[in-house]
Design brief:
The protein is an alpha/beta fold. It contains 6 helices and 11 strands. Helices cover 36% and strands 21% of the residues.
């Protein structure tokens, strides 16, 4: 399976418990930004060791201004980073991001879905993260009526929390750690024509 995310820590924050709950998955995490930042890349690859996953990083621009990137640039970066084009499962961001609002998350979703629809990447099942924050009224939480909703066992959540605090180094009162969901949720899209 491939997990395609915008930033290092997105894989853990939004799907770390799911990955940890499936130790037999052959998981490749494709992160589109941060590859040019030594600290971020070291933390990312250390997190992947804890997740028993492989990974690769790109270096798309990700400044605080969140300038919109060219769609073709995002799609080409995904294709360049993926070692193969066919997976049993691909997981990525939701079309509305996971909170209000993040252009990179939304753009990655759009690129992955477009590549899948154009049959430049192949999977019979595509999952997108299913979180919402009430239009920034509260920390992001799992959408209760999502296709897949899992309350993480305490031991799995503690491992996820460890990655966020000890490996990524986020403080206990940081937005990232306060957000770290106890439940993980995904929208499941199946396409029997895309093998």
């Amino acid at each position: 399976m491939a997990l395609i995310v915008a930033h290092p820590n997105d894989e853990t924050l939004w799907a770390g418990g799911t990955i940890l709950s499936h130790p037999l998955w052959d998981c490749l995490v494709v992160c589109l930004t941060g590859g040019d930042d030594k600290d971020k890349s070291v933390r990312f690859f250390n997190a992947l060791k804890e997740l028993n996953s492989k990974g690769i990083m790109g270096d798309l621009e990700d400044g605080p201004e969140q300038h919109l990137l060219n769609e073709n640039e995002i799609e080409n970066t995904i294709l360049k980073l993926l070692p193969v084009r066919q997976y049993d499962l691909i997981i990525t961001h939701n079309s509305t991001g996971e909170y209000t609002r993040h252009n990179r998350h939304e753009a990655v979703n759009k690129a992955v879905v477009k590549l899948w629809q154009k049959e430049e990447i192949f999977t019979s099942e595509l999952w997108t993260f299913a979180y919402e924050d009430g239009k920034a009224k509260y920390f992001p939480k799992a959408v209760e009526n999502a296709s897949i909703l899992q309350l993480l066992p305490e031991q799995i959540w503690q491992r996820k929390y460890y990655i966020m605090t000890e490996i990524y180094g986020f403080g206990k009162n940081s937005w990232e750690v306060e957000t770290t969901p106890l439940k993980e949720a995904f929208w499941q899209i199946k396409n029997t024509n895309n093998k």
